[in-house]
Design a protein that fits this description.
With about 160 residues, the chain is α+β, with helices and mostly antiparallel strands. The chain contains one helix and seven strands.
């Protein structure tokens, strides 16, 4: 029968199509070796006007698998010119996102880039295996309060329990 398509040729055609599709997917995918370990999603200066506090913070997501126990060492430039602020965080079981903030800062100036350096260190040996540097310069002028805005009872730290 001339008009009939045989099942054997249909299977061969389907297999060939799947192989072509697989080759196309492999050629068009992103190479994971070229990705950084962490991708910075965003961050900036954070202002708490009520208590006249300024700090830097950012959020990052892993782009490649990071071994559990790896130490993330973040070095924030000190706007006052002193020694930099260093924050260390241990990477836990698959962290979907990592948020880090600096300690409180003083002397932040508008439109000045402040460097932040990330470094991943192996668990146990603390040997660095990846680093990345970026900077913040998104601090607008005139946004700093030199003192607490709302001075009074509520601005003082209250103890949780009173012992008599």
């Amino acid at each position: 029968m001339r008009g009939e398509i045989k099942m054997g040729w249909t299977a061969v055609a389907a297999t060939a199509f799947c192989l072509v599709l697989l080759v196309a997917i492999l050629l068009l995918r992103d190479d994971p070796g070229e990705k950084p370990y962490l991708k910075i999603l965003g961050g900036s200066f954070i202002f708490n006007y009520r208590v006249a506090d300024v700090y830097m913070g950012f959020t990052a997501v892993p782009e490649k698998p990071i071994p559990v126990g790896t130490m993330l060492v973040v070095t924030f430039e000190n706007p006052s010119g002193g020694s930099p602020y260093v924050v260390t965080r241990q990477i836990g079981l698959p962290d979907r996102s990592i948020s880090v903030r600096s300690p409180s800062m003083r002397g932040v100036k508008a439109k000045v880039p402040y460097r932040v350096m990330l470094e991943l260190q192996q668990a146990g040996t603390r040997t660095p295996f990846w680093n990345h540097v970026f900077s913040y310069d998104d601090c607008p002028a005139g946004l700093f309060c030199p003192a607490i805005l709302n001075a009074g009872k509520s601005s003082k730290t209250q103890p949780f329990f009173s012992v008599s």
